[in-house]
Every structure is written in C-alpha cells, then in structure tokens.
Specification:
The complex is a heterodimer of chains A (245) and B (361). Chain A has a single domain, classed as Rossmann fold (3-Layer(aba) Sandwich). The longest helix of chain A has 19 residues. In chain A, 54% of the residues are buried. By secondary structure, chain A is α/β, with parallel strands linked by helices. Chain A starts with 23 loop residues before the first helix and ends with a strand. In chain A, helix 7 links the parallel strand 5 and strand 6. Chain B folds into two domains: 235 residues, Rossmann fold (3-Layer(aba) Sandwich); 119 residues, 3-Layer(aba) Sandwich (Rossmann fold). Chain B is built from 13 helices and 15 strands. The chains are: A alpha/beta (245), B alpha/beta (361). Chains A and B meet through strand 1, strand 2, helix 2 and helix 4 of A and helix 3, helix 4, helix 8 and strand 9 of B. Strand 2 of chain A pairs parallel with strand 9 of chain B.
C-alpha cells in the first residue's frame, strides 16, 4: 500500500510555538498543501506579520520576509511590482491587518495587486496578551475591554471581507474558518482558489479565516471552537463574498 | 556625454535610471514632487516600475519588499515624508537591504514650510527611526553632484547592504543647472543570491532565504548589532568625502558647511579675501561618515582663530563640528532655518563678528 498521508514539502520540521487549540497550525498546513499542489514552492515569497504569526517563517520552507506591524501588503506590493513572476502572499492577523494595517490592505486591494492575503481573524490581539481588536465582538471581554466591548464607545467589529469587497476593483474575497474538519476542507478550497487567481495574474485575492484563541478567550480548546461557531460565525458569515468577473 | 539643462528633481530621477535603477515608488510632497512626475513618464519608456503609493509609510515598505527580493530601488521625499518613512528605514537597515532614499529637505518642525532647509541633519545622520543603525548620507551641492551621488549610491547600498540617503536641500531639487550623466557611473546590480528572497528557482538554490530584523535571543541580537556596527566603522574608514576650499592659505577662520549653504559660503570667502580676511572651507560631501579628521587637522592651523558651522539648521551639524575640533578652537554657529538661504553678505558679517571676538582674546 502506498503512502496516503505526508507532511507538505512547503512545511518545515520545526515545532510551532502556537498554543493548544489555536488554528494557526491548521491554516499554515492548508497554505503549505496548496503551495505543494500548485508546485510553486520554489518561486513563492511569504510575508510574516507582527503578532502571533510573527515567526511563521520558521514553519515554511520557502523564501520569507518579515514585515513591520500592518505593512505586509505594502511589502507584497513592492515584491510583486518588481518581480511579477514570484508568487507572493501575506499572512496577517486581525490587529495587524484590520487595525494598524487597514490603510495598506485597502489600497493594495483597490490597486488590484496580484498577491494573496491570508487573514486570520480570532477577534483578539494574541501575541500582546489578549487586547481588544477591531474584530472583537460586542460585549466580548478582553484585557483592554474588561467590561466587554462597548460598541457605543468603540464601534462595531469590522467585517473586513465585506469592506474589501465593496471596492470597485475586481478581486477574489472569501471568508472561511478552520475550527472543524467540515469547514477546513472548504477553507482549503478557497485558499487554493486564491492562489490560482494569483497564478493566472487575475486579481487580488483574500481569504479571511475565522479562528480561535483559547488562551486569550480564557476557554478550553473545545469551548473555543463552540464559541467561535456560535458567536463569531453568525456575525462573520462564511463563503465567497466576491469573485472577479 | 551631452550637457543638458535640467531641474534638480528631474535630474535625480534620470540619474536613477542611468544608474540602472528601474524601480521607483513615491508619494507626492513639495518640494520634490517633480521626481515622481518625471519618473511616471520616464519609467514606462525603459520598462521600469513606477508606483505612487498611498502614503510615505506604505512607500517605505514597498521599497523594503522590492529591495528584499533583490531589486535596485529608490524613493524620494521631503522632510515630513521622510519622518513617516523612518520606520521602514529602520527595518531595512535592520534587515540589511540595499535601497536609496532621497530627502529634498524643507523647513520644519511639523509642517514647517516648503522652502529650502537643512534641518533634517540630525535625523539623517543619527538615525531618524528606532534602534542602532546609521545611513550613509551624501550631501550634494549642485545638480551635477546630485546626479553623481545618486548614481554612486546604488553600488554603495549594495556594498554595505544598507540604505543610503541623499540629503539635498530644496534648492538642489528646484534649481536648474547644466548637467552631464557620466556613463562610467552606470553599474550592474551585484549578485544578491546569498540573501535576497528572489525565489529558489530564480537563483537555482535549494536553500530558502529569509529577510528579517527580528532576533528574540539577546545574544543573537547583540551579535547582529555588532555586525551592523562593523559596517558603519567600515564606512568611516572607506567612504568619507569632503572638499577643501582655500585651505592652503593662512586662514583666520575655518567654515564647515555643506549643500547649497556651502556655495554661498564660497562666495562670501572670495569677497572676504578682497577685504584681506582669509577664510577656508571644509565641505562635507558625506555627512555620515563625517570628515572629523579633516576638520580637526584644518582647525589645527596656527593662523586659525575660530571654526564656524554654517548651516540652514539651528546648530545641528555644529554638534559634529564641535566633536571633530575636540576643543582645539572655539566653535561657533551661524545659520537660518525659515526657508531663506543666508546671503554672502550675511555670512561675511557673521564671520567678521566672530573673527573680531576671537582676535581680541
């Protein structure tokens, strides 16, 4: 009987620093599988964010750049403009992309830059210890919203996929989640589609992946999955939000 | 080599192309927007990249991304814009990528004004962003010199894997002068396969490259900073440039001045000589590394009573001049910082008043 399961070549042997119950590891693997399947590893450049995935470059086996907080889309623009033949993706969290880096992602999307963004949304700042993010849910407690997010004071959580989809420039924009196997299969399909659009030089492509953070949510891994499914998914609906004409 | 009449900003843009830099990202700001306007037309003619970014912050990182994958790349801006780019400049220096930044300085602080200034001296030479890094800073005094420095900046950036800054005042960008683009300053980009994220297939390697400035282990970060320091020490040994003017006379006053201001000083020196007052000039062409030894030696002349730092800033270069003279002579400052360039008469009056003060003592 042949080999039926193996580690993607695009994934390194390093043990990740992610907490138990965190979905970063799953999302890394999906990206690596897609890169293997498309046979683009040797011409791919990844861009790591600031946040929990700041060390993402340790877990992949292709070229990587490490960005400043929020600036990954500007770096990806620089690479893709001078080397359109390279496959480029940014891997960013919600604090990085939706707060400090909102300007960069909107303008990169609006220019129709031909790179891919994997946006991991777990509704909280992870690396800095669980502060409120632009995607934190109403009344959700964080270390900087100890009484729960007061939307009268700081506004509603930002639906980034829909916001980017509102731009007039053609793009592939999708929202998925990695909390359960049935969703993970669909998430991989979306990530693959995003890379395929880039490969074809078609458009900017963006996959938001709703994720968990048991550590900063103060939950067990299982509780976190259930909370994400019951609280995040109704507000952040799954599926393709926009496809290019 | 044909001589053409060009505005400084346009000549800077053309110089980049002539140097083999076909990648330019920028954001408009007075008084250097003509560089972007010029290159928006010119880059397509040479199959180059022109992109107007959404902010100087973003442009800084477009430069970083492009430089990190091995491309020759340049941006131009003016003082407030350079402040915004300083975050990226720190990252680029930390990650050891070559890139060229041109600052056509205007008055500050804050919005300041749009007229010529040299008030970003400390920002450029001491590190405008965070952390222990330095830029190799070149200061042109004419459009011709701006062209040559831009063309020389790319191989220097690659030699040191460090950002280079061309620090010109608004007049360098705005005035028109005859200029020649020297063919011999065109260079081929160096081989960057050892470190650039240019794709494993592209460089035919099985080893992946990583461009980063993050070193969480304190010993490793310290070692990285020592490595950077060694580069800056090498710049001090190999890249110091300056011009001496009238230093073969029995001068009574030594002026240190750079850029447009140094040209006014030369006129003042010539005028003062007709009155029998002998003044010499050291014009730093590199501000980092700074020509400390040359200034110290010039300040050792027996006839010299006082050293003056004359600058369109409020005594910023004065600190480096003072440090160079090491107490051998009094060091004084003269300058203006509102956008008016001091006249030769104003410079001469200042020289005379300090000469009088220190001749008495």
């Amino acid at each position: 009987m042949g080999k039926t399961f193996h580690k993607p070549e695009a994934l390194s042997d390093a043990q990740t620093h992610y907490c138990p119950g965190c979905t970063h590891g799953v999302i890394h693997r999906l990206v690596a599988e897609v890169i293997d399947e498309l046979q683009i590893r040797r011409r791919t450049v990844g861009i790591a964010p600031v946040g929990c995935a700041v060390l993402a470059y340790n877990y992949f086996t292709f070229d990587f750049q490490e960005a400043a907080h929020g600036r990954a889309p500007a770096m990806a623009t620089g690479i893709k403009r001078v080397r359109p033949d390279l496959m480029v993706f940014t891997y960013q969290g919600d604090g990085d992309l939706a707060s400090i880096g909102m300007g960069e992602i909107i303008h990169a999307a609006n220019r129709g830059e031909k790179f891919t963004t994997i946006f991991v949304n777990n509704a909280v700042y992870g690396m800095t210890g669980g502060q409120m993010a632009p995607t934190t849910m109403p009344n959700q407690r964080t270390t900087t919203s100890p009484f729960g997010r007061n939307v009268a004071d700081v506004g509603m959580p930002i639906k980034v996929a829909e916001l980017l989809a509102a731009l007039q420039t053609p793009a592939y924009i999708s929202r998925q989640t990695a909390i359960k196997p049935k969703y993970i299969v669909k998430a991989k399909k979306a990530i693959k589609k995003a890379f395929e659009y880039q490969l074809a030089g078609k458009c900017f492509s963006f996959v938001e992946v709703v994720s968990t953070c048991p550590t900063n949510w103060g939950m067990t891994a299982l509780e976190a999955v259930n909370w994400a499914e019951n609280t995040l998914l109704p507000y952040y609906p799954l599926g393709d939000v926009k496809t290019p004409e | 080599m044909r001589k053409v009449l060009m505005k400084g900003n346009e000549a800077i843009g053309e110089a980049a192309i002539r140097a083999g830099c076909l990648n330019y990202f920028a954001y408009p700001i007075t008084p250097q927007s003509e560089v972007a306007e010029y290159l928006s037309k010119r880059m397509p003619e040479v199959n180059g990249v022109f992109l107007q970014g959404e902010s100087e912050v973003a442009v800084g990182y477009m430069i970083f991304g492009a430089a990190a994958c091995g491309a020759r790349v340049m941006t131009t801006s003016s003082s407030p814009g350079i402040s915004l780019m300083s975050e990226a400049i720190s990252y680029i220096a930390g990650a050891e990528c070559p890139a060229v930044f041109v600052n056509i300085m205007r008055g500050g602080p804050g919005l300041g004004g749009i007229l010529p200034s040299q008030a970003d001296y400390l920002q450029a030479t001491k590190g405008g962003g965070h952390g222990d890094y330095r830029l190799l800073v070149m200061a042109p005094a004419s459009v011709q010199e701006a062209v040559e420095m831009v063309m020389q900046a790319f191989p220097l950036a690659e030699k040191y894997r460090n950002p280079i800054m061309i620090l010109g005042d608004g007049l360098i960008g705005q005035m028109m002068e005859p200029v020649v683009f020297p063919d011999d300053l065109k260079t081929e980009p160096g081989n960057k396969n050892d470190w650039a994220t240019n794709g494993m297939d592209f460089r035919g390697s099985d080893k992946r490259n990583l461009v980063r400035s993050l070193y969480l282990d304190p010993e490793v970060l310290n070692a990285q900073n020592l490595k950077l320091k060694a580069k800056y020490e090498q710049m001090k040994r190999e890249e110091i440039r300056y011009e001496s003017y009238k230093t073969d006379t029995d001068y009574q006053v030594l002026i240190v001045s750079y850029g447009t201001m140094s040209r006014v000083c030369k006129t003042a020196i010539d005028n003062l000589l007709e009155e029998g007052i002998r003044v010499a000039l050291i014009r730093p062409q590199t501000l980092f590394p700074f020509p400390e030894a040359a200034i110290r030696q010039a300040a050792s002349a027996k006839s010299c009573r006082v050293v003056m730092s004359i600058e369109m800033s409020m005594g910023q270069m004065l600190e480096d001049v003072d440090r160079s003279v090491q107490g051998r002579l009094p060091v004084e400052w003269y300058g203006k910082c509102g956008g008016d360039v001091p006249t030769p008469e104003e410079v001469a009056d200042s020289v005379k008043s300090f000469l009088q003060k220190y001749s008495k003592e």
